[in-house]
């Protein structure tokens, strides 16, 4: 029933993924953006809360002309209308209407939560016609001591057919490295009323990046071309060449990944390490950067609370293990988060990285804590802290942004794609600017309520901290970098949300390259200066004034209600 994922704890449903337009959505949309190299909007994320809110608002306005408002047809029609509208919105740099729209209907067949959506899809196949609708059903095939069991798949397909939906493809997920056996495929084909070529196996492989090639090898592309009559779509030579180039580069990436011998070790010092999906995009950014640097990533998960002095007495084994991971790492990463828990441990890790010249990257919360740590240990401000931890602090280095609501949590942060302007002449020394191709202005996605206290900027900069990137007015600090350090960088934004397998996020690429050695960092800097291309469509990279303009939204698009502002 949530409107979006913005108010969910990371341990509840994994990370909150932020889109260019500020939509706070499920992490699955991050997978789609990364794999397909597309840019989605908040409308691409449908929730029960959004649909019910839209239907109730229509009922309150009288749009239903006095009729009794029901799940069928009003809720199911709202779902279908939403899908049909969003499916026509361009999602890449071509600006063209998509030929195919993928709709992921989550949950389990038979769940009460998904019942209106399944009924909507049953109706939708007739609205668009069978030649424009294909259903892929994903089912678990358990492996019981080497025997692949088909009963769960038979049962779920039977339930799905009872609800009026017939799968065109059955994707059989095996959580072992053994492929789907021909006998298993034949049995599923027989009992689920599909041809053998309509059953594909998805077993565990050495890397998730092999999965597209695994599906391609089983003929899924040829089947969908025939099923959806994709041969009738005109494909230009330029599009064909782009597709061939993508396939070639993807195959090279997967082959190269299997032959990597050198390792790079990164300590991720976070608050939500018990649920690793909380940092999904961070991990993917590190993976993509490691691929580029021809290194195998060794990621050490460190609970920041275990680094604090109190842990030495309460959990000495965890304390020593945590510090062993930090001091032995080639690089240290402090990602985003909220709240005071673990913050002292994060600052101890930041202090170690700064003083020992270990490559460091701080993201959002990590950026803010790097400023607090500097204020305490370099500027001599013993009481320096964040207003998030102590609103009455005498020396708040980090303060609540004045334009942010203090009464409502959902959708009220500084969200979405925002510009950052690098200071003049920083191209001479700034490693992170060079990793962005030397550009004077960059765009990254933000999600925060707090900022560096403007009243303390002069004191911080006079002590040697360099805020190399600011907002367009020069008032909000957005990127810090220490010139006399191998790589010490902090971002108020979340650059991990814009990483791609073949175009890694520049700050993460810098961290991995610096952790691999000065030579590797210099190589990547030179490469980025020649070839970096932002992953955003041209039309989305606009000034902040344009982002603030209150343009009318299409009907059904998410917006703050008056009660939420």
List the helices and strands and how they pair.
Layout: H1 10-13, E1 17-18, E2 24-25, H2 28-36, H3 48-61, H4 71-86, H5 115-128, E3 136-140, E4 143-144, E5 147-148, H6 151-162, E6 169-174, H7 182-192, E7 199-203, H8 211-217, H9 220-227, H10 237-258, E8 263-270, H11 280-292, E9 296-303, H12 309-314, H13 316-327, E10 331-334, H14 343-355, E11 360-363, H15 365-377, E12 385-386, E13 396-400, E14 414-422, H16 431-435, E15 441-448, E16 450-452, H17 457-462, E17 469-470, E18 477-481, E19 488-491, H18 506-516, H19 518-531, H20 544-548
Parallel strand pairs: 3-6, 6-7, 8-9, 8-10, 10-11, 11-19, 12-13
Antiparallel strand pairs: 1-2, 4-5, 13-16, 14-15, 14-17, 17-18, 18-19
Helix pairs in contact: 3-4, 4-5, 11-18, 14-15, 18-19
């Amino acid at each position: 029933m949530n409107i979006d994922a913005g108010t969910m704890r990371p341990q509840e449903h994994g990370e909150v993924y932020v889109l260019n337009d500020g939509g706070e959505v499920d992490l699955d949309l991050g997978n789609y953006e990364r794999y397909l190299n597309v840019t989605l909007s908040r409308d691409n994320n449908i929730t029960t809360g959004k649909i019910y809110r839209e239907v109730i608002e229509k009922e309150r306005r009288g749009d239903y002309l006095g009729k009794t408002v029901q799940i069928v047809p009003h809720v199911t029609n709202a779902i279908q209308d939403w899908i049909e509208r969003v499916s026509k919105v361009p999602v890449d740099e071509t600006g063209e209407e998509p030929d195919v729209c993928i709709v992921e209907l989550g949950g389990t067949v038979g769940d009460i939560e998904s019942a209106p959506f399944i009924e909507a899809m049953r109706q939708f196949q007739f609205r668009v016609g069978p030649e424009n609708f294909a259903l892929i059903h994903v089912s678990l095939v358990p492996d019981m001591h080497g025997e692949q069991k088909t009963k769960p798949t038979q049962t779920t397909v039977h339930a799905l057919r009872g609800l009026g939906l017939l799968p065109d493809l059955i994707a059989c997920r095996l959580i072992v490295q053994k492929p789907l056996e021909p006998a298993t495929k034949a049995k599923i084909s027989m009992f689920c009323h599909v041809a053998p070529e309509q059953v594909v196996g998805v077993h565990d492989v050495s890397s998730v990046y092999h999965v597209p090639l695994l599906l391609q090898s089983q003929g899924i592309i040829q089947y969908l071309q025939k099923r959806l009559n994709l041969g009738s779509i005109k494909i230009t030579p330029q599009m064909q060449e782009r597709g061939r180039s993508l396939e070639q580069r993807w195959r090279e990436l997967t082959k190269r990944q299997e032959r990597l011998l050198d390792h790079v070790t990164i300590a991720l010092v976070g608050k939500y390490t018990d649920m690793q999906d909380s940092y999904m995009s961070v991990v993917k950014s590190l993976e993509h950067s490691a691929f580029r640097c021809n290194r195998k990533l060794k990621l050490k998960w460190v609970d920041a609370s275990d680094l604090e002095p109190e842990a030495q007495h309460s959990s000495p084994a965890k304390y020593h293990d945590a510090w062993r991971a930090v001091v032995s790492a080639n690089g240290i990463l402090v990602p985003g988060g909220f709240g005071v828990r673990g913050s002292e441990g994060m600052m101890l890790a930041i202090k170690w990285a700064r003083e020992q010249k270990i490559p460091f990257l701080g993201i959002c919360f990590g950026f803010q804590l790097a400023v607090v740590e500097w204020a305490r240990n370099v500027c001599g401000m013993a009481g320096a802290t964040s207003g998030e931890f102590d609103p009455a602090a005498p020396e708040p280095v980090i303060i609540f942004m004045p334009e942010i609501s203090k009464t409502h949590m959902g959708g009220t942060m500084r969200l979405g794609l925002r510009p950052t302007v690098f200071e003049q002449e920083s191209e001479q020394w700034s490693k992170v600017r060079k990793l962005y191709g030397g550009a004077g202005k960059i765009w990254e996605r933000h999600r925060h309520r707090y900022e560096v206290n403007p009243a303390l900027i002069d004191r911080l900069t006079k002590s040697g901290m360099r805020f190399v990137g600011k907002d367009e007015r020069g008032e909000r600090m957005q990127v810090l970098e220490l010139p006399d350090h191998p790589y010490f960088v902090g971002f108020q934004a979340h650059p991990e949300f814009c990483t791609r397998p073949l175009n890694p996020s520049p700050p993460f690429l810098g961290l991995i390259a610096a952790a691999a050695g000065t030579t590797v960092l210099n190589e990547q800097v030179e490469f980025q200066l020649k070839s970096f291309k932002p992953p955003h469509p041209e039309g989305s990279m606009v000034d902040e004034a344009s982002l603030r303009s209150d343009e009318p939204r299409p009907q059904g698009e998410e917006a703050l209600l008056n009660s939420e502002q």
